[in-house]
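Weekend entry, working from home. Most of the wet-lab plans are on hold until the incubator is repaired, so I used the time to fold the two sequences that have been sitting in the queue since the last round of cloning. Logging both here for the record. First:
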Amino acid sequence: MLHKPVNFLELIGGGKVPEVLVGTWIVMAILLVFGFFARRALMRAADPIVPDPKPGLRSIAEATVEWMDGFVHDVLELHGYRLLVPFFGSLFLFILSANFFGLIPGMEPPTSDSDLTFALGVVCFVYFIVAGFRSQGVIGYLHNDLVGPIWWLFFLMIPINFADIIFRPFSLGIRLYANMFADHTVLSMFTALVYLVVPILFYALGAIFCIIQAIIFVVLAMAYVRLSTAHSAH
């Protein structure tokens, strides 16, 4: 007989606050605390430009920022890409932390709730639309992304391109939600059936899966920004 695992998020919220909201608050608090102490360590350094040879919050933060800078550059390949690093870096760290949150016994990953994943998709949707407006102008963006190069086929291309753009946030949200929900469900089932050795293997696979899903979401979001600024990238 399977025992229902303890859900600490439900206990914290008293059954009245949605679990996804409690989990999101906790993940946000962890990231804010990490950022605060990492910044304080950087400000206390004798020379902030010189990397810290000792392992600590500052070195972890510096390595993360350096990796994200290279990651965004390699995917976008745009001039001024560093202006986009804060957004995509924050997005990646939040999704990754939310995914890993589900590996803690008694916790539900916020990204296994469709409300959060769709909200993230909408945020990315607004972001790449605004990026397109800024790079091409409103008229230029609407012409290039909706009408296309062959203007006399506008009656055919506008509905197709409009549906493609509108579906993007739903695609992002559904993909992340479905994968994280399935991963957490499988992990919960097998850890409830077997208590030794096997759960370790599934936790290891779950950790890899969490990283992959965070990368996929951010890469797709960056691809949409790349598409919305393609006509002004060079």
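Second, folded right after the first finished:
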Amino acid sequence: MKQNKSVTYRSTRGSKEKITASMAVLKGIADDGGLYVPDVFPPLSVSAQKLSGLSYKETAYEVMKLFLGDFTKEELTDCIEKAYDEKFDTKSIAPLVKKGGVFFLELFHGQTAAFKDMALSILPHLLTVSAKKNGVANEIVILTATSGDTGKAALAGFSDVEGTKIIAFYPQNGVSPIQERQMITQTGDNVFAVGIHGNFDDAQTGVKQMFNHTELVKKMNDAGYQFSSANSINIGRLLPQVVYYAYTYGQLLHQKECAPGEEFNVVVPTGNFGNILAAYYAKQIGIPIGKLICVSNENKVLFDFFESGTYDRKRELVLTTSPSMDILVSSNLERLLFIMTGNDSEKTAELMKELENGGEYKVTEEMKSKCRDFYGGFSSMEDVKKTIKKYFEQEDYLMDTHTAVAAGVYEQWKDDGKTVIVSTASPYKFTRSVMEALGRDCGEKTDFELIDELSEVSGVRIPKAIEEIRTAPVRFRIGCDKSEMEETVEKILGLTI
């Protein structure tokens, strides 16, 4: 029952109070609106040789025990065992595939065919353990905003988990038909999917406002509820993502593709910045990651930030063929910003206030120098088409549009170093865009008709996660304006008469 209590968590804004890992997971977001960050990054205690022989579950334990100090070995092991089981269609959980001189880390073998499964398979278990450890009697209400993949993965992860309810908000016209179908057919008496008239940033802003609405929080508490988050603003969502970068290093060693301590670069498609921040955290605990290539689509707010030092959300959101990256406010960047300020919570709060009120902030050259391992890149929708076709025809490798955003940037940038491209979703989640990239006439065919055609063309097996929603009954036809999100939550929870 030994516990490691060395790592505590503090908010990126204002408050310097330190709390336990379980409380940070439970709260999701700090009372001052900031995000929880670890006060230290403990070094991974496993040798390269041992890491090369560890399974995904074993790697998960070695990484997560560093950060979840008030979880016992038994508690953490139980969470890991429940998360990474037959829900994944491959024993390795996250295969590393070499194609054309570059490695693809496939993170889409879970129950919703997207990388969000890697963290959202374990978060419900971390959360319920955290609630018990902290004597919480209230029912936990998970509020989440999704640009497509988080919603389904969170709904599936929390489905019928005792003591929880989950409400996922998504932009009605901002996700693929397959993504929407996955959400509105989700089973579970405690799950709800709501389409809003607005974009992802509107959904994310609405969720954050509800977390910080004192009167709503009190009303919920009186009714026996309290909020938590399944978005990557929750540290319990972010930490499991660190695992797959450590596992990648172990697999490179196991496949004798790199020597102990040899650096490898990562190319990560991201909108909300959580996936690449997890790689940065992995580097801090000793995984020899070299360059972190932060990849954007045509909503290149992150690319512009790393180029200029100015984060500017004052632009029109472009709806692209990689909708999970159609984001202008990258919430997890705040955690890197905190590091860039020298862990100055007041300065971080000031900059985030500038973003909220004026739509932008600018960092100093000194601050910018603290993220010199990061490089920006972006791919246009035309680039994405070319990349999908090239890899399929030349390497017999089929990828989705988000992975193609990253692979396109790699083609522009590649050097002699070992490089891993993070593959975030099955091509079957974005069938129409993939088929069009392959030069096929999609006409008036439905996305489900195109699934069968893509299978014939590619020979790639259709994931169970896609097959099972073909005939699943639609459970949710809830819609609301972006200004009605709080009212919708109150209705779902029965807080209004």
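Plan for Monday: verify the second prediction. The mean pLDDT is 93.
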